[in-house]
Structure formats: C-alpha cells, structure tokens
C-alpha cells in the first residue's frame, strides 16, 4: 500500500488507529478542529514544542522507526518533567517524504503509542503534509504543573547545591559510536548497547520529576540536559544571575562510558561535560534539603547525585578537582544549532 492509495485522510485515520491511550482530561481528541481538555484551577498549563528534522536531529540509517517515534515524544515529555509538570496531551505535525513507506509510519506510530501509554499523554491531533525530501516531525506537548511546585531555570542562589539524575555523557558517546561504525572500537557489545541505546531511546525522568514535585524540598531551579551539562547549567546560571562550581569526581558516569573511554583513549570528561541529549534532570536545592532528596531518589528510578554548588559570581563556571585545583570552564561545550552541523 502506498500514500496515493491511502490519501491524506486515509493515512491520518490509519495512523490514528494505532494510538490507544485516552486521557480522562481530554474531552475532544483527534477528529475535530481543535483538541479540548480540562485543566484544574490550582495548576498552570505548561506547553513545549520540539522540531526534529532528518539529517539534523536523526539519521534514518541509525534509528529505527519505532525508536524515532519513542524518542520524538520522550524528548518533549522531558521538557515537561523539567518544569515539575505532568504531560496531558500532545499534538504532532509531520512532513512525510515519498521515500517513506506506510509500514515505516505504522512503526513510528507504534513507538509514539508506547510512550503515550507509558506517560499517560494522549496524542490528540496535529497535521500531516507531504514533504519534498526529508522527514520532519514537530511535536507539541501540553501539561500541567501545580502552581506552587513549578520549577524554572530562574531561582538558583549562592550556596545552593547542584544535583543531577542518572549519569552523563552516554548519549554523546553513543552518537560517536553510531557515526563511525567502521572504526574498530574496543568495547564489549553490551557496553556499546548501553551508550547507543541511551542516545536512540532516552528515558524522560518523569519519576524523578514527580518525586521532586511531590516532595516539600525547595527546588530553586531545574532544567533537563539536552545540550550538555555545561551548556544547560549555563542556562540556569544566566537565568538566575549566578555561577557554579562543579566537582569533577562527583559527576556521575556509567561503567560503560568509563570502560569505553579508557579502552579507546577518549576523554570521559568531554562527554560528561559537553555531551548533549542526556535528558537527565539538573536542578538546585538548599543544602538542608539535599538529604531529603537523595534519600528518596531510589523511588525515582534513577540515582540522584550532588555534583557541585552555586557561587555568587554571575556566569562563572569552574571545575574543581578532588585536590582543590580549580579550572575555569570557559566556553560552553555543547550543541548549538547555528554553530555546528549534524547532530545525530
Ligand atoms: Mg529543555
């Protein structure tokens, strides 16, 4: 079956039938001029959008249709999690080139459906158009956050501790491996799988976000790491008018990353500090509330590590070694769309 046979509306109906999650908050989903949903008075609506373009954000030779569907929705949910919010509905717009098959789109929607069910977000509409050459995905997610538990980039204060979920750098290392498949990497297939999967199939830290939003800990700022630790910490520092000290030995690294880096003479810190697309949560809290958070971090599916503290000097980021040696981190290492080429 091809697109001409299905037609635009046939295609939309076919893809819509692959989506199974229905949210009780959504009154009208796919099939009307607008989606309608009900929001509570003690909550803010939080909205985010993310565009993914073939050859810029993904490469169809390295990611499967199903993984791409999962990732496209997951990275948006990660932004909602970063505000302390819960996702409710998503709108998806696609630019579909003729080279794609109906089978590919079916699998792409199966991936979307898996994440939709897992995080309780209904795909409630969008638009599908033909694209001349490249596959284009635009997803908007709407969610809700309690008015007194909305976390933003602004609010970190000198003396606050800096914390992060999970481990850092795996995704960027996974991307490096994917980009040079013919290079003879010295790595076990299990280690390779760990870092490559973190890149292709990232998991939004919704459980950690819910735990933080549901606790009484004072979260003074939060962001999800999409552009790299240094760059995203830089966003918190800029918005809050502060600087930060990072403790080199405290930065969480997976065993797979450490092994692959040492065996292939790669600098771990480059991936940990600059690598993008970790989709971990980076946040600040008062020294008094640190224990409260780390003790509950078992419930958050990912460990939470204390990696540094906020300092008064605006924009000043330093890496502090175990022996006290301080090294200024000058330029943000991380991804910038208008400075570099292909991402993944
Ligand atoms: Mg973000």
Task: Please summarize what this structure is.
The chain has 344 residues and is of the alpha+beta class. The chain contains 10 helices and 13 strands.
What tags apply to this protein structure?
about 350 residues; alpha+beta; 60s Ribosomal Protein L30, Chain: A; Phosphoribosyl-aminoimidazole Synthetase, Chain A, domain 2; seven-stranded mixed beta sheet; four-stranded mixed beta sheet; binds magnesium ion
Report on this model:
The protein is α+β, with helices and mostly antiparallel strands and 344 residues long. It folds into two domains: 3-148, 60s Ribosomal Protein L30, Chain: A (2-Layer Sandwich); 161-328, Phosphoribosyl-aminoimidazole Synthetase, Chain A, domain 2 (Alpha-Beta Complex). It is built from ten helices and 13 strands. Strands 8-10-7-11-9-12-13 form a seven-stranded mixed sheet, with helices on both faces. Strands 3-6-4-5 form a four-stranded mixed sheet. Strands 1-2 form a two-stranded antiparallel sheet. Helix 1 (3-16) packs parallel to helix 3 (102-119) and helix 5 crosses helix 8. The radius of gyration is 21 Å and the shape is globular. The site of magnesium ion (MG) has 5 residues, from helix 2 and strand 8.
